[in-house]
Write a structure and sequence with these properties.
By secondary structure, the chain is of the alpha+beta class. The protein contains five helices and 14 strands. The chain has a seven-stranded mixed β-barrel, surrounded by four helices. A four-stranded antiparallel sheet has the order 1-2-4-3. It is globular, with a radius of gyration of 19 Å. The two termini are about 30 Å apart.
Length: about 250
Protein backbone atom coordinates (compact mmCIF):
# COMPACT_ATOMS: atom_id res chain seq x y z
CA UNK A 1 0.00 0.00 0.00
CA UNK A 2 1.16 3.54 -0.73
CA UNK A 3 2.82 5.31 2.20
CA UNK A 4 0.01 7.49 3.65
CA UNK A 5 2.51 10.29 4.22
CA UNK A 6 2.70 10.63 0.42
CA UNK A 7 -0.98 11.52 0.16
CA UNK A 8 -1.83 15.13 -0.54
CA UNK A 9 -5.28 16.14 0.65
CA UNK A 10 -6.51 18.92 -1.64
CA UNK A 11 -9.77 20.84 -1.49
CA UNK A 12 -10.43 22.38 -4.91
CA UNK A 13 -13.35 24.67 -5.89
CA UNK A 14 -15.74 23.25 -8.49
CA UNK A 15 -17.98 25.92 -9.98
CA UNK A 16 -20.11 28.07 -7.69
CA UNK A 17 -21.46 25.33 -5.45
CA UNK A 18 -18.91 22.58 -5.01
CA UNK A 19 -15.56 21.38 -3.71
CA UNK A 20 -13.54 18.42 -4.93
CA UNK A 21 -11.64 16.73 -2.11
CA UNK A 22 -8.79 14.85 -3.81
CA UNK A 23 -6.19 12.52 -2.32
CA UNK A 24 -4.16 11.60 -5.42
CA UNK A 25 -4.06 11.92 -9.20
CA UNK A 26 -3.84 8.17 -9.81
CA UNK A 27 -5.78 5.23 -8.31
CA UNK A 28 -3.35 4.33 -5.53
CA UNK A 29 -4.78 1.92 -2.91
CA UNK A 30 -4.11 4.33 -0.03
CA UNK A 31 -5.83 7.17 -1.86
CA UNK A 32 -8.85 4.96 -2.60
CA UNK A 33 -9.08 4.07 1.08
CA UNK A 34 -8.77 7.73 2.08
CA UNK A 35 -11.53 8.77 -0.33
CA UNK A 36 -13.86 6.04 0.97
CA UNK A 37 -13.12 6.98 4.60
CA UNK A 38 -13.74 10.66 3.83
CA UNK A 39 -17.05 9.91 2.09
CA UNK A 40 -18.17 7.70 4.97
CA UNK A 41 -17.31 10.34 7.57
CA UNK A 42 -19.21 13.16 5.88
CA UNK A 43 -22.16 10.90 5.07
CA UNK A 44 -22.40 10.01 8.77
CA UNK A 45 -21.99 13.63 9.94
CA UNK A 46 -22.89 15.87 7.02
CA UNK A 47 -21.63 19.47 7.37
CA UNK A 48 -24.22 22.23 7.35
CA UNK A 49 -25.27 23.25 3.85
CA UNK A 50 -24.03 20.14 2.02
CA UNK A 51 -26.63 18.86 -0.46
CA UNK A 52 -24.72 16.17 -2.38
CA UNK A 53 -21.78 13.83 -1.74
CA UNK A 54 -20.42 11.91 -4.74
CA UNK A 55 -17.43 9.64 -4.15
CA UNK A 56 -15.04 8.61 -6.94
CA UNK A 57 -11.98 6.35 -6.66
CA UNK A 58 -9.55 8.88 -5.15
CA UNK A 59 -11.73 11.96 -4.68
CA UNK A 60 -15.09 13.09 -3.35
CA UNK A 61 -17.30 15.83 -4.81
CA UNK A 62 -19.16 17.86 -2.21
CA UNK A 63 -21.92 20.20 -3.39
CA UNK A 64 -23.52 22.80 -1.13
CA UNK A 65 -26.47 25.18 -1.00
CA UNK A 66 -25.93 28.79 -2.18
CA UNK A 67 -26.46 30.17 1.34
CA UNK A 68 -23.60 28.08 2.79
CA UNK A 69 -20.61 29.83 4.35
CA UNK A 70 -17.96 28.72 1.84
CA UNK A 71 -14.96 29.54 4.01
CA UNK A 72 -16.30 27.60 6.97
CA UNK A 73 -17.17 24.57 4.84
CA UNK A 74 -13.81 24.62 3.05
CA UNK A 75 -11.99 24.68 6.39
CA UNK A 76 -14.10 21.77 7.67
CA UNK A 77 -13.42 19.69 4.56
CA UNK A 78 -9.71 20.51 4.58
CA UNK A 79 -9.33 19.61 8.25
CA UNK A 80 -11.13 16.29 7.84
CA UNK A 81 -9.23 15.40 4.66
CA UNK A 82 -5.85 16.15 6.23
CA UNK A 83 -6.77 14.16 9.34
CA UNK A 84 -7.68 11.13 7.23
CA UNK A 85 -4.61 11.42 4.98
CA UNK A 86 -2.24 11.53 7.95
CA UNK A 87 -3.82 8.71 9.95
CA UNK A 88 -4.24 4.94 9.62
CA UNK A 89 -5.69 4.08 6.23
CA UNK A 90 -7.80 1.04 6.92
CA UNK A 91 -11.15 0.79 5.15
CA UNK A 92 -14.08 1.73 7.41
CA UNK A 93 -16.04 -1.27 8.61
CA UNK A 94 -18.87 -2.12 6.19
CA UNK A 95 -22.49 -1.88 7.25
CA UNK A 96 -23.78 -4.13 4.47
CA UNK A 97 -22.53 -7.34 2.83
CA UNK A 98 -23.67 -8.53 -0.59
CA UNK A 99 -23.15 -12.08 -1.81
CA UNK A 100 -23.42 -12.27 -5.60
CA UNK A 101 -23.44 -15.59 -7.54
CA UNK A 102 -21.03 -15.69 -10.50
CA UNK A 103 -20.24 -18.34 -13.12
CA UNK A 104 -16.50 -18.32 -13.81
CA UNK A 105 -14.62 -19.39 -16.92
CA UNK A 106 -15.89 -21.03 -20.09
CA UNK A 107 -18.31 -18.96 -22.15
CA UNK A 108 -19.14 -16.90 -19.04
CA UNK A 109 -15.51 -15.94 -18.38
CA UNK A 110 -13.52 -16.45 -21.59
CA UNK A 111 -10.42 -14.62 -20.33
CA UNK A 112 -10.20 -16.31 -16.94
CA UNK A 113 -7.27 -18.44 -18.08
CA UNK A 114 -5.11 -15.56 -19.27
CA UNK A 115 -5.97 -13.44 -16.23
CA UNK A 116 -5.07 -16.31 -13.91
CA UNK A 117 -1.81 -16.94 -15.74
CA UNK A 118 -0.89 -13.26 -15.51
CA UNK A 119 -1.56 -13.42 -11.75
CA UNK A 120 0.64 -16.53 -11.45
CA UNK A 121 -2.28 -18.84 -10.65
CA UNK A 122 -4.20 -21.75 -12.08
CA UNK A 123 -7.81 -21.07 -13.04
CA UNK A 124 -9.03 -22.94 -9.95
CA UNK A 125 -6.70 -20.97 -7.69
CA UNK A 126 -7.82 -17.69 -9.29
CA UNK A 127 -11.50 -18.44 -8.68
CA UNK A 128 -10.73 -19.52 -5.09
CA UNK A 129 -8.93 -16.21 -4.46
CA UNK A 130 -11.72 -14.15 -6.01
CA UNK A 131 -14.41 -15.88 -3.97
CA UNK A 132 -12.39 -15.66 -0.73
CA UNK A 133 -11.51 -11.97 -1.11
CA UNK A 134 -12.99 -9.33 1.19
CA UNK A 135 -14.00 -6.78 -1.40
CA UNK A 136 -15.70 -3.38 -1.28
CA UNK A 137 -17.60 -1.17 -3.65
CA UNK A 138 -14.91 1.49 -4.09
CA UNK A 139 -17.13 3.77 -6.13
CA UNK A 140 -20.13 3.84 -8.46
CA UNK A 141 -19.47 5.29 -11.88
CA UNK A 142 -19.09 5.21 -15.67
CA UNK A 143 -22.72 4.05 -16.01
CA UNK A 144 -25.72 4.22 -13.63
CA UNK A 145 -25.22 1.93 -10.65
CA UNK A 146 -22.03 0.36 -12.05
CA UNK A 147 -19.63 -0.66 -9.28
CA UNK A 148 -15.85 -0.62 -9.16
CA UNK A 149 -14.97 -3.35 -6.68
CA UNK A 150 -11.64 -4.04 -4.97
CA UNK A 151 -9.00 -4.47 -3.98
CA UNK A 152 -7.44 -7.81 -4.86
CA UNK A 153 -3.86 -8.67 -3.77
CA UNK A 154 -0.94 -7.08 -5.59
CA UNK A 155 -0.42 -10.01 -7.98
CA UNK A 156 -3.82 -9.08 -9.43
CA UNK A 157 -2.46 -5.70 -10.56
CA UNK A 158 -3.11 -6.72 -14.16
CA UNK A 159 -2.77 -4.15 -16.95
CA UNK A 160 -5.66 -3.24 -19.17
CA UNK A 161 -5.72 -5.00 -22.53
CA UNK A 162 -3.87 -3.34 -25.40
CA UNK A 163 -7.07 -3.48 -27.49
CA UNK A 164 -10.71 -3.11 -26.49
CA UNK A 165 -13.01 -6.08 -26.46
CA UNK A 166 -15.86 -4.67 -28.60
CA UNK A 167 -18.61 -6.10 -26.44
CA UNK A 168 -19.11 -8.06 -23.24
CA UNK A 169 -22.63 -8.96 -22.07
CA UNK A 170 -24.65 -7.52 -19.21
CA UNK A 171 -23.51 -9.14 -15.99
CA UNK A 172 -19.91 -9.59 -17.18
CA UNK A 173 -17.38 -9.56 -14.35
CA UNK A 174 -14.13 -8.06 -15.63
CA UNK A 175 -10.80 -7.51 -13.89
CA UNK A 176 -7.77 -5.21 -14.13
CA UNK A 177 -5.58 -3.12 -11.80
CA UNK A 178 -6.66 -5.14 -8.71
CA UNK A 179 -10.31 -4.22 -9.31
CA UNK A 180 -13.47 -5.69 -10.76
CA UNK A 181 -16.24 -4.04 -12.70
CA UNK A 182 -19.63 -5.75 -12.84
CA UNK A 183 -21.33 -4.46 -15.98
CA UNK A 184 -25.02 -3.66 -15.76
CA UNK A 185 -25.39 -3.57 -19.54
CA UNK A 186 -23.55 -4.73 -22.64
CA UNK A 187 -20.35 -2.74 -23.02
CA UNK A 188 -16.94 -2.48 -24.65
CA UNK A 189 -14.04 -2.94 -22.23
CA UNK A 190 -10.28 -3.11 -21.97
CA UNK A 191 -10.52 -5.37 -18.90
CA UNK A 192 -10.52 -9.17 -18.91
CA UNK A 193 -13.82 -11.04 -18.52
CA UNK A 194 -13.46 -13.77 -15.91
CA UNK A 195 -17.11 -14.49 -15.13
CA UNK A 196 -20.72 -13.48 -15.46
CA UNK A 197 -23.51 -12.79 -12.97
CA UNK A 198 -27.28 -12.54 -13.37
CA UNK A 199 -27.27 -9.54 -11.00
CA UNK A 200 -28.00 -6.18 -12.66
CA UNK A 201 -26.67 -3.10 -10.91
CA UNK A 202 -29.23 -0.75 -12.49
CA UNK A 203 -32.86 -1.52 -13.29
CA UNK A 204 -35.03 1.63 -13.54
CA UNK A 205 -38.29 -0.22 -12.84
CA UNK A 206 -36.99 -1.93 -9.70
CA UNK A 207 -38.06 -0.59 -6.29
CA UNK A 208 -34.42 0.32 -5.64
CA UNK A 209 -32.96 0.89 -9.13
CA UNK A 210 -29.34 1.02 -7.94
CA UNK A 211 -29.02 -1.29 -4.91
CA UNK A 212 -25.24 -1.13 -4.42
CA UNK A 213 -23.68 1.69 -2.39
CA UNK A 214 -20.13 2.88 -2.02
CA UNK A 215 -18.46 1.05 0.86
CA UNK A 216 -20.67 -2.06 0.62
CA UNK A 217 -18.80 -5.31 1.21
CA UNK A 218 -18.93 -7.78 -1.69
CA UNK A 219 -18.45 -11.53 -1.78
CA UNK A 220 -18.61 -13.44 -5.06
CA UNK A 221 -20.00 -16.98 -4.82
CA UNK A 222 -19.17 -19.62 -7.41
CA UNK A 223 -22.25 -20.79 -9.37
CA UNK A 224 -22.72 -23.04 -12.43
CA UNK A 225 -23.57 -21.42 -15.74
CA UNK A 226 -27.02 -23.02 -15.89
CA UNK A 227 -27.89 -21.47 -12.52
CA UNK A 228 -26.86 -18.04 -13.76
CA UNK A 229 -29.04 -18.60 -16.84
CA UNK A 230 -31.97 -19.52 -14.61
CA UNK A 231 -31.42 -16.55 -12.29
CA UNK A 232 -31.29 -14.25 -15.33
CA UNK A 233 -34.98 -14.96 -15.86
CA UNK A 234 -35.99 -13.46 -12.50
CA UNK A 235 -38.03 -10.31 -13.03
CA UNK A 236 -36.30 -8.35 -10.25
CA UNK A 237 -32.90 -8.83 -11.95
CA UNK A 238 -31.23 -9.35 -8.57
CA UNK A 239 -29.67 -12.54 -9.89
CA UNK A 240 -29.77 -14.41 -6.62
CA UNK A 241 -27.79 -11.73 -4.78
CA UNK A 242 -28.39 -11.57 -1.04
CA UNK A 243 -27.87 -8.66 1.35
CA UNK A 244 -26.83 -8.95 5.00
CA UNK A 245 -27.02 -5.83 7.19
CA UNK A 246 -24.03 -5.93 9.52
CA UNK A 247 -24.88 -3.07 11.86
Amino acid sequence: MTDPRALAAEVLPVGLDGYLVRFALTPEPAAMTAARRFATRIEEATPAGVVEIAAALVSVLVRFAPSTDRATLEAQLKGLAEDIASGPLDMPSPTRLWTIPVAFGGDEGPQLGQAAQAAGLTEAQAVDEICAADLRVLTIGFAPGQPYIGLMPEHWNLPRLSELTPSVPAGALVVAVRQFVLFGAESATGWQQVGRAAFRSFVPARAEPMPLRGGDAIRFARAPADEIARLSEDTDRMGGATLEVLR
